[in-house]
Every structure is written in structure tokens, then in C-alpha cells.
Design goal:
By secondary structure, the chain is α+β, with helices and mostly antiparallel strands. It folds into two domains: about 5-145, MutM-like, N-terminal (N-terminal domain of MutM-like DNA repair proteins, Alpha-Beta Barrel), CATH 3.20.190; about 155-275, Helicase, Ruva Protein, domain 3, CATH 1.10.8. Helices cover about 25% and strands about 25% of the residues. The chain has a five-stranded mixed β-sheet. A four-stranded antiparallel β-sheet has the order 3-9-10-8, covered by helices on one side. A two-stranded antiparallel ribbon has the order 1-2. Strand 12 (about 265-270) and strand 13 form a beta hairpin. The chain is elongated, with a radius of gyration of 20 Å. The two termini are about 30 Å apart.
């Protein structure tokens, strides 16, 4: 958490007018995005947040840079600069807000602040300190190990089936493996498998071409619905989404399946809680 829909929501808000911005009272308003804004300076309050280069070089190279565009690759946020690329991964608890550059509004867990010339700032807040930034000349230095994006035109049912056959792994952890498919986490994997009627412990190489196509369609449908709902807000980490109100299995242990009425079951698989309907999602 955050997963692809939450990262996509943040990316869109940074890239387009009418994004999220929090004022000093914590209320939500809008701002014209960060594209076209020039970074005056950078303040790093937790040095380990910067993965590359060193902190001094990171700050000095960002000063004077203009943000040209903001995109997403898997769970990574990619800022295209006037010279180079700034890459951010929110990890477990990272969040980004844009606000007026006021010293008195700096919060306890603010790790990186990009201060713009026009008086706004982009703030990276990360209570658990796992989030990371990279400043690179080529984004592939960070992103090369990622698998295809779920929305890639090149990811056809046949290609998905081939990928599943080649891996020969339990389907739930495989879908969460970012080198296999970029962007899925615990929430949306559970929801997609339920929609596709596939048991989370099913071996990937035992899925048919029809099942692979159904799974791909389900992944895209669940992710698109998550994006439409601005992601899921299930704890104190990510704010503003409402997809949690539409979960079919995730965090619904013991409650009736909306499809068949059977109680939703929770198991632990790969050290992650996994939710599914034992009637709708039978293991082959």
C-alpha cells in the first residue's frame, strides 16, 4: 500500500490541474499541478530516503530544474525534468502533498521537500521511512527489472498465458511479483482473483488460455475501478479514496460473498493475508 490505483491517482493530481493539495488546516482543495513549476531548492530531512545520488548532489542537481511531466510506471512515480528524471517509490507508507511553502506547516514525518519558485512545495511524507527517491539520467537504471504494466497493449491474453506457463508458481504471490507484472499489491490481487474466479493458491502453469484471458480482464477491471474511486483508503497512510467501500473479498473475512453467499475466508500465503471465496474460487 499504496498500489497502482493510488499511485495513478497521485500521478494524475500532480500532472494535471485540479489535483490534491492540503492547506495548513489539513483540508482538501485544488491546485494547478506541478508540471511547469521550477524547483528553487530541495530539503532532505531523512537522508536514507535518497537512494541515488548522494544527498548533496541530489539537492544541488534538482535546484533550477523544471518539472516537464509526471507519469507512473508500476508503483513508481516518474518526474520528467528539464535535465534528467526524478523517480519516487512510496513503499509502505509514503504520500505526497502539494501546499504553500510555510515553515510552520512542516509535519513530523516529512522526509523530502521540493520548494518551488512560486511559493508552493511538494512534500514527501513517510512515517515508516521505506520510501525512496532516485535522480537519474535514464529511468531504466531504476525501472528495468519491472514486468509489463497491466494496461500495456502488448499484454494480450496469449502473452499473459505464456507468462503464467513459464513461471510455474502459486498465482497470488506471482501476481504481486513486480518483475512479473508491475503495480499489483495485496488488495487488488485478491479482488482480481475473486472476479476471475481463480483460487489464490492455484499454480500459474495450470491455468488455461481462457482463464488467463479472464484473469487479465479482471485485473484491468479492478484496477480501473480503483482508479475511478481514487484508490482505497483503509488506514492512515493514503487519504481520499473510496474503493474500500466496494471491496468484494479484501478485509471481508466471514462476511457473505456477494456472488454466492458463502463466507469469505482469510488465509496467510507468503506472509500476506489472502481473502477469497472458497465456493467461487475453487482450486483445480
Amino acid at each position: 500500500m499504496p498500489e497502482l490505483p493510488e499511485v495513478e491517482t497521485i500521478t494524475r493530481s500532480l500532472n494535471h490541474p485540479g489535483g490534491r493539495v492540503f492547506n495548513d488546516s489539513g483540508s482538501l482543495s485544488t491546485y494547478p499541478g506541478v508540471v511547469g513549476r521550477t524547483i528553487r531548492n530541495c530539503v532532505v530531512q531523512w537522508e536514507r530516503t535518497i537512494a541515488a545520488p548522494d544527498v548533496q548532489s541530489f539537492c544541488s542537481q534538482l535546484a533550477g530544474q523544471c518539472i516537464r511531466e509526471v507519469n507512473r510506471r508500476g508503483k513508481f512515480i516518474l518526474f520528467t525534468l528539464s535535465d534528467g528524471f526524478l523517480i519516487c517509490h512510496l513503499r509502505m507508507s509514503g504520500d505526497i502533498r502539494v501546499e504553500a511553502d510555510l515553515p510552520e506547516t512542516i509535519q513530523k514525518h516529512d522526509r523530502v521537500l521540493l520548494q518551488f519558485e512560486d511559493g508552493l512545495r511538494l512534500v514527501f511524507n513517510d512515517p515508516r521511512k521505506f520510501g525512496r527517491f532516485w535522480l537519474v539520467d535514464d529511468p531504466q537504471k531504476v525501472l528495468s527489472a519491472l514486468g509489463p504494466d497491466p494496461f500495456s497493449d502488448e499484454l494480450t491474453p496469449a502473452r499473459m498465458h505464456e507468462m503464467l506457463q513459464n513461471r510455474k508458481r502459486t498465482i497470488k504471490p506471482l501476481l504481486m511479483d513486480q518483475s512479473f507484472l508491475a503495480g499489483l499489491g495485496n488488495i487488488y490481487t485478491d479482488e482480481a482473483l475473486h472476479l476471475a474466479r481463480i483460487h489464490p493458491l492455484q499454480r500459474s502453469d495450470r491455468l488455461t488460455l481462457e482463464q488467463a484471458g479472464r484473469l487479465l480482464d479482471s485485473i484491468r477491471e479492478v484496477l480501473m475501478e480503483g482508479i475511478r474511486r481514487n484508490g482505497a483508503s483503509i488506514d492512515w497512510v493514503y487519504r481520499g479514496g473510496e474503493f474500500q467501500n466496494y471491496f468484494k473479498v479484501y478485509q471481508r473475512t466471514g462476511k457473505p460473498c456477494y456472488t454466492c453467499g458463502s463466507p469469505i475466508v482469510r488465509i496467510v500465503n507468503g506472509q500476506r493475508g489472502t481473502h477469497f471465496c472458497p465456493n467461487c474460487q475453487k482450486k483445480l
